[in-house]
Amino acid sequence: xxxxxxxxxxxxxxxxxxxxxxxxxxxxxxxxxxxxxxxxxxxxxxxxxxxxxxxxxxxxxxxxxxxxxxxxxxxxxxxxxxxxxxxxxxxxxxxxxxxxxxxxxxxxxxxxxxxxxxxxxxxxxxxxxxxxxxxxxxxxxxxxxxxxxxxxxxxxxxxxxxxxxxxxxxxxxxxxxxxxxxxxxxxxxxxxxxxxxxxxxxxxxxxxxxxxxxxxxxxxxxxxxxxxxxxxxxxxxxxxxxxxxxxxxxxxxxxxxxxxxxxxxxxxxxxxxxxxxxxxxxxxxxxxxxxxxxxxxxxxxxxxxxxxxxxxxxxxxxxxxxxxxxxxxxxxxxxxxxxxxxxxxxxxxxxxxxxxxxxxxxxxxxxxxxxxxxxxxxxxxxxxxxxxxxxxxxxxxxxxxxxxxxxxxxxxxxxxxxxxxxxxxxxxxxxxxxxxxxxxxxxxxxxxxxxxxxxxxxxxxxxxxxxxxxxxxxxxxxxxxxxxxxxxxxxxxxxxxxxxxxxxxxxxxxxxxxxxxxxxxxxxxxxxxxxxxxxxxxxxxxxxxxxxxxxxxxxxxxxxxxxxxxxxxxxxxxxxxxxxxxxxxxxxxxxxxxxxxxxxxxxxxxxxxxxxxxxxxxxxxxxxxxxxxxxxxxxxxxxxxxxxxxxxxxxxxxxxxxxxxxxxxxxxxxxxxxxxxxxxxxxxxxxxxx
Length: 690
Ligand code: 3H9
Hints:
The chain is of the alpha/beta class and 690 residues long. Helix content is 51%, strand content 11%. The mean pLDDT is 96. The protein binds (S)-3-Hydroxyhexanoyl-CoA (3H9).
């Protein structure tokens, strides 16, 4: 705390994000009391040092015994100060950080500040009055989407909504001091946020409006506990005195905190950040500068990859083999942007700007100025090797040469160049302009700064990069393949596509494997299997009948637009296949479907860890969340396995191996070891990190 004349300035300084750990809470409390009791202090400014005001409660303290003062105590102390209290915020005042500001009479923010209550993303609700004070400040209509989405709002919107009182251009603390003096000079009324109810009157008089707001905002909350708790808490602003409501809010918060969903979501929060830490690639490994990118292939994949760069203002040279293919690719890209304009997410003038950043060409030589080239041609080793050989002669020295292969050996591809150190895998997921996951494949010779560049580029283009090693299918697709094999077997044994997909959507996936196959196109897997001499009896029979999925209106399902309907023809085809393959059909339960689909994935994940293909179980979880829609509230396959119990999973896999004679079900050595020890993948990760 320091003084500027009659104003006390309390600065919270706990890098990196000023999280409210115990010492911070106590520091705020003690200093607020000192300023409150000091007669020469006429106003108090509360601000944060470093890159941001308080970004929330300290998540690492969750689950440990609570220590007083709690954040609620601190806010209660602020609430009772009879001189103006002003929160002066910048960066990302989030969660408990925003709740703290709402204990002040006034809030001012630096331009560029983003304010929010992101607790829902951690499977929680605000636990220090946020569900009670935010609606009092901005009304339920605006507060509900903020709390249910967890998305922060920019300062300008916060000002318009009444969450803050002023935006400060220039030095924040000077601006806050000027604001404090203005408040004192004008003798402004000091209304506590908890005592305000002007923004609640309307809905209190028409409670039916509340249900309408709920209906508008709770579309994506299937299976989740926190959104329902948040809605219930917000509803208390209508009829429950705030002190009582805060107690109930706190109880609901604590209940969620010890629940499996929040544990899983917190695991993901830390796993995502952990995934950025790669051995041999330190903070001192500078990434190479990327000013221009090149993408080879203007098909669905190449086009999507190129859009990512253009979306963040990086010009892209995009290569195709013929003018016709190039034109078609560019037209698809333009159509995608036009759709964004129609949806209102892109300004028409930005469409023109973005299209101007593409340099389409049929000449590989046009890549000579690219700082990074990403190859996205079809999956064929000789083709890729020839291409990298040519690229070696064209690309400028120091350019990063990346392959978007989803299965092939990155080291073998690298060998066709004279610069193996510059070669890396960058495996995007379809649709590449939408899906967040980016597997960065580290070849045996990939230079640390090339890996760093790939990761930095990944973050720049708003992906979640995860480093993996070289093996067939890397992490995501290798595990997916274990699931696909079982899916096909379940159909032969007695389940129908809708049974399998239904069990998985109930589990929390946005769609099941067969609906996903229809979306991606059944011809894709069929072609790739033919190349490898593998056959999936049912999927391939469908593809041979021209049923490629959504694009042909028929696949595992019948389509009317995007709506899928079970198809009796498919059922017959499946039953015939069972007969042909000599498999006696039987009833398959939902529980069995989950075990059969996900346990083998966990087993494969354990092998992947043994082989060092993934660095940590958390990396696998992040991959499955962002690449395949594994429900965040289950924490990814490896975290989920820990919650099921590794012994249970191992024992069931053993049974399966015996029943089916399928060696793939033999438990991985790591799984066996952990199951015998009563261990977990989390424990394995912690031991490895130590
Ligand atoms: C809450 O507030 C509950 C209350 O309602 C009720 C209480 C009673 N705690 O993301 P970054 C670490 S719930 C502890 O890489 P960025 C993070 O792990 C909380 N640590 O930086 C990382 O560590 P490391 C509500 C935290 O600039 C480092 O800080 N708040 C916390 O890309 C840098 O983080 C939230 O959910 C934390 N709260 O993004 C906000 N936050 O370097 C969560 C960060 O060792 N945080 N760390 O890997 C975020 O969204 C982002 O971190 C933020 C910065 C936007 C702030």
